[in-house]
Amino acid sequence: MAENYLECLKQKEEEWEARCLRCGGCCGAFDDPCRHLKKSFDDKYFCEIYNCRFGERTTVAGHNFNCVPINKLLHVHWPGSHLCAYRTKIVAIHG
User: What is the pLDDT of residues 42-93, one digit of tens each?
Assistant: First the structure.
C-alpha cells in the first residue's frame, strides 16, 4: 500500500514538473536573474543547481533572495509571470 502511495506521489510530482515551459520568468530571466539560471541551446532556461535550489541565493546584480517552491509564488506578479504555465493552470482551475 505504501509503495503505491509513494509511486502516486512521484507520478504527481513528475506531472507538476512537466508543466514548466522553462521560460525562466520565476527565476528572474526578464529582470535580475538568479546567478544559477542558465539558458540552454534551445533558448529554454534551467537551474544549474535545481535539486538543491531552495534557500538563500544571489542574483546576477548581487541582490540576495530566498529561492522557494513555485507554489509559493503563484499568487504574486513578477516580470514574465503571464508566461508561466503553472500560473495559467491555477487561473484555469480557480478562475
Answer: 999 999 999 999 999 999 999 999 999 988 888 888 898 888 888 876 655 5
Query: Chain-centre distance of CA 38, in angstroms?
Result: 13
Collapsing DSSP states into helix, strand and coil, what is residue 7? helix
**8 Å CB contact between 39 and 24:** yes
- Residues 34, 22: contact at Cβ < 8 Å? no
pLDDT at 95 over 60: no
pTM higher than 0.85 for the full model? Answer: no
β strands within 1-95, DSSP E: 37-39, 45-47, 55-58, 64-67
Say which residue the cell 538568479 belongs to: 34
> What is the chain's alpha carbon radius of gyration, rounded to the nearest angstrom?
15
Q: Would you kindly state where each structural domain of the chain is located, as residue ranges?
A: 18-94
